[in-house]
Amino acid sequence: MRQRINLRLSLIALMAVVLTTNGITIIYYKLFQDQVRDDLKQSAKVLVETNIFQDSYSLTNLNLDELNKLQFNDLRVSWIDRDGTVLYDNEKEAKSLPNHKNRPEIKMAIKNGEAESIRHSDTLNMNTFYYAILLDNGTVLRLSIKASNIANVIIKALPVILLIVIIILVVCVVVGHYLTRQLMRPIDVLTENLNDQDAMVYSELEPFVNKIRSQHESILSVAKSKQDFTANVSHELKTPITAISGYAELIENHLLDKESEVHIAEQIRHNADRLYSLVNDIIKLSELDHFDTPNDFERFDLLEMSKDCVNNLSSQAEKRGITVKCLGEATFITADKSLIEEMIDNLLQNAIRYNKDNGNVEISIKSVDNKAIITFSDTGIGISKENLDKVYERFYRVDKSRSRETGGTGLGLAIVKDIVDLHSGEITIKSELGIGTKITVSL
Fold first, then answer.
1. Enclosing domain of residue 103
2. Residue 57 — pLDDT band, cuts 50, 70, 90?
3. Which of 1, 22, 94, 219 has its CB 3.0 to 4.6 Å from that of 86, i.e. a possible disulfide?
4. Same domain, yes or no, for 332 and 268?
5. pTM passes above 0.85
6. What's the CATH code of the domain at 126?
7. H/E run at residue 336
8. Torsion of CA 260, 264, 265, 266, to 10 degrees
9. What percentage of residues in the chain have a pLDDT greater than 70?
10. Residues 414, 285 contacting (CB under 8 angstroms)
11. Is 189 part of any domain?
């Protein structure tokens, strides 16, 4: 980037020098032409005022002495008769010159009183400026001077132009390097201190930098979340695997009596079930992380689905004497049926798992302002205020010992939250320790 900036600055400087030089040269040459014309006119007027060419029509009567006294310098003076015959020329013998009647400046002078023209000589690469004036006696006085054309002027000025270009390019490279370093310094500082909110940055780049910072923080957060999740998965899987391995070793070495074997078999089955639940929940979370909202949502009754979930978990509730009620009105929604069933099942299992023996669970379903509201209320152990914000974290458990005993994986509410978010819904939790928990989902 630095090299591109330096190169472009140098190119801009080069273009500026070339264009400026050409512009100034053209303007200068135009002024020069105007000055040459003015000089020719002034010289012609001076010669006319001498009256040398007024009284005679032939070289015999022309006062050559007076003409010789005049210093014309680079001027060429020609005196032409009304028929085009050259009467006098200060550079060549008049008799040797052809008739000038058809010369543009002579014709225009006879017609308009005065005229001027410019003729280019390819051989000499010069321009000749002509000025002709009609005298009172009908003859024409013509003055001319040779001058460099614009190409000649540019060629002569080329060494100076090249020297200026070289100097300017050197200056541009040095200044461009300095300016580029100054320009890039805030970006370099920002690169090294991306998380520093006080890092110097251009105001024009603030939206871009804020976006980059936000994405950077998001990436770091996701990376940390994945790292934590991997660590937690490893830890959670290690426990039942270690237990199964240990029990299997006891059986392999015949270290158990028949009564103990039955207990060990139960523990192996319990840990295998826990392992199975963990794997299923991890797979479900992985699917939700890469879930694209399908176009084939189906319409179904939320109340009917909730009643089915209650029936499926009735035996689990009866073991602890927990009463589960499902109340409300038929409420139809359009959603992913399997995911909503997963959500209801998880919330209902939590309400039973973290409830007190002989407690109560109530599911209430209703429709409010075109929204389906499903509420889960229980008389369980409750959640402290400081833990309410953590319940959606993966592998977080309110009561770790009870969760493991009852087969909880700590992923249920994380799955529920993802499902609700995928359906653009809202979930709120209200809870008091020792009294119970109320979870409301709005779809």
1. 2-153
2. very low
3. 94
4. no
5. no
6. 3.30.450.20
7. none
8. 110
9. 81
10. yes
11. no
